[in-house]
Amino acid sequence: MKRSVEVSGKSLEEVLERAARYFDVPPEQLGYEVLSETKGFLSVFVPRMVKVRVWVKDEEEIAPETEPPEAQKAPAQDFSEVQESLDRFLGELVEKMGLEVTVNVTQEDGVLRCALDGKDAGVLIGRKGETLEALEVLVRTFLARRGHGELPLEVDVSGYRKRREEALRKLAERMARKVVREKKRVRLAPMNARERRIIHTALKDHPQVVTYSVGEEPHRRVVIDLKTQKRSGGKQKPVKRHARSRGNEGGSPQPGKDHEG
């Protein structure tokens, strides 16, 4: 029997990210089964938490990196059927919720993209995108229960994800400048796994700061701190001497004084 773990989180993406760190393998090498969902406050259709059983696939289950042209073209019809099925599912969902929202499901560059827009689109975004995250969990669950849980998927409402990513990148750059200027680390507000990764990626090549995550879900947040400086003897010393923070996601924690950003 395959070794597996049960992981809970606010989104399937978050669960798979944590499981990948646990097994020390890329997420695409994981298999999973959705065990349960906890419904949200807006509607019985919107889950807030998902519990998943995760395991590492056997070698024969992992698709080869290169496939013959025939193999690449074969799933096209099935993908089209999934696209139509998902379009119907989302259309019925927003209709039952009484929302004036249009649904457009397309396939672009091998990714299944679900775009929703309309007069009531804001309801599907929610506070800080929480309802949108829950909606994506629901869509992934819908696909997984039909044997298509590993299809690349993007769910967006009124272009919110793109706007949010741009805003987070600007925030990361602004806070990095503040850390360098004031020589104090900055602790950002709690974010989900997707948004924390955007911050880490935005600053991963910054010459003067490092990022890492601290805390537990749903209060896990990113810390932006100064990198260490080298002494003349070759050893490293921190900019200031304080207790080291726990938690690491995107870089090693460095000493410094907490400052909320």
UniProtKB/TrEMBL annotation:
Belongs to the KhpB RNA-binding protein family. SUPFAM superfamilies: R3H domain. A probable RNA chaperone. Forms a complex with KhpA which binds to cellular RNA and controls its expression. Plays a role in peptidoglycan (PG) homeostasis and cell length regulation. Pfam families: Jag_N, KH_KhpA-B, R3H. SMART domains: Jag_N, R3H. It comes from Candidatus Caldatribacterium californiense. Residues 229-245 have a biased composition (Basic residues). Has an N-terminal Jag-N domain and 2 RNA-binding domains (KH and R3H). Residues 162-228 form the R3H domain. It comes from the Bacteria. This is RNA-binding protein KhpB. GO terms for molecular function: RNA binding. Residues 224-261 are annotated as: Disordered. Transmembrane segments: none annotated. PROSITE patterns: R3H. The keyword Cell wall biogenesis/degradation applies. It is found in: Cytoplasm. Forms a complex with KhpA. The gene is khpB.
